[in-house]
Amino acid sequence: MYLKSGFVSSFLLHITQSELAIKLMNNVMNTYGTRELSISHGSGSWLWDTEDNKYLDALSGIAVCGLGHAHPNITKAILEQSKKLVHCSNFFSTSKQDELARKLCEIAKMSEVFFCNSGAEANETAVKIARMYGKKRGLVPPNILVTNDAFHGRTYAAISASSATKVKAGFEPLLDGFLRVPFNDLDAIKMMAKNDKNICAVFVEPIQGEGGIHIPNNDYLKDLRSICSEEGWLLMLDEVQTGNGRTGNYFCYQESDVVPDVVTTSKGLGNGFPIGACLTAGFAKQILKPGSHGSTFGGNPLACAAALATINTIINENICENARKVGERILMNLRGSLGNISCVKSIRGRGCMIGIEMNRPCKELFSVGLRNNIIINVTSETVIRLLPPLTYTMQESDHLSEVLVKIIKEFDLEK
Ligand SMILES: Cc1ncc(COP(=O)(O)O)c(C=O)c1O
Questions:
Q1: Does the CA dihedral 108-118-305-46 come out positive or negative?
Q2: In terms of domains, do 215 and 294 share one?
Q3: 14 lies in some domain
Q4: Do 284 and 244 share a structural domain?
Q5: Looking at ligand 1, which residue's alpha carbon is closest to its atom 6?
Q6: CB of 296 within 8 A of CB of 89?
Q7: What is the pLDDT of residues 340-377, one digit of tens each?
Q8: What is the distance of C-alpha 57 from the center of its chain?
């Protein structure tokens, strides 16, 4: 009876038989739209679908699998740890959690870390720390400065701190206490400092990812650090996407030689095994006390083993340097071949985080990429985003560039 309804017959006109099969048989809540491919397995920079077609991955599971797919070090660490202990609760310490905390703090030049399972949860932790810190300083309500085009995740604090209407629409009321300024605009921040005495923290991505790969001026983070120190605000950096080698340093802020008060990270930290972390130093240290925050799964030994193996591989195998080299190669290839193509507005990037901004919406290029056996992403409607594994070879970089150039030239002719 359902199949005979008018809705279903008009629906049928718009989708293919196989899509229909997926839609009618799939019980996964449809928050991601129609998935065009079913992925079977991966190795290094390559993914295979269930029909054995091979794709060069330039997305890495959205900046997650920085070491590529099925990396032997990570597989081994997960296998070995899973034979010993998967989970025991945070009522107990484990050597893996302690070791990971020590390692992360050493790399980040931070003092302590709270472990969780995702980027949004790490950011929830940061927002809670900022509010507690603000209240300790007598700021009621405490306000946090955030930016236009920011993306911080999908929980309530994270969507409230994020900028795009599409992640907020329908979910109101959101959290109060976020004041927004343009990204990369220090004057706007100084103006806020004059006008609002309740600010306790600034929360930004060092390079905006979902917002369209926006890279601030070289001095932005350094000047932000100075303003925060003068005003007594926490400098909180969202390195969920930029961290773990993605931009050619372990953390992106290390390029600017600053030390923040709070850093959040996730995505590439476990190379695909879910884990998030919120690191603190300075005035943000020891704000959270026993009982004030927690996570059942956060920092379990299996996740920590995967993250330790990931960090050790990134450091021991000089992966940050490779990310810089292959990123520069891709940028050079693209700039060399697309300089005069009118649909290309700008090509920008750092390390393996690259954006090609088009002069019109280009969402369909994701599917065009699949038909050409490459996996790319389009964010912010008009920006092709490349987040390849940090382990790309020069040949893979050239292959990706060649296919992309062909696709973009064809897109240019379609206008
Ligand atoms: C900068 C940034 N922060 C936070 C998040 C949210 O991370 P998660 O999806 O793991 O919650 C993302 C995800 O894309 C991100 O790019």
A1: negative
A2: yes
A3: no
A4: yes
A5: 153
A6: yes
A7: 999 999 999 999 999 999 999 999 999 999 999 999 99
A8: 16
Query: 309 with 359, same domain?
Result: no
Does one domain contain both 287 and 325? Answer: no
- Enumerate residues lining ligand 1, CB below 6 A: 62, 118-120, 123, 151-153, 205, 209-210, 238, 240-241, 266
- Same-domain pairing of 309 and 323: no
Residue nearest to atom 7 of ligand 1 (CA): 119
Classify strands 143-147 and 178-181 as parallel, antiparallel or unpaired.
parallel
Q: Residue 99 domain-assigned?
A: yes
Q: Residue 53 CB: number of other CB atoms within 10 A?
A: 12
Domain residue limits at 384: 24-57+318-413
DSSP 8-state assignment for residue 268: G
SS3 64: coil
The more confident residue out of 400 and 2 is: 400
| One-character DSSP codes across 239-267 | -TTTTTTTTSSSSGGGGGT---SEEEE-G
CA of 241 to the centre of ligand 1 (A): 6
Per-residue pLDDT tens digits for 236-285: 999 999 999 999 999 999 999 999 999 999 999 999 999 999 999 999 99
Quick: pLDDT tens for 276-300.
999 999 999 999 999 999 999 999 9
For residue 130, CA distances in Å to 11, 33, 179 come to 48, 35, 14
> Which are the contacts of 321, defined by CB distance < 8 A and separation ≥ 6?
248
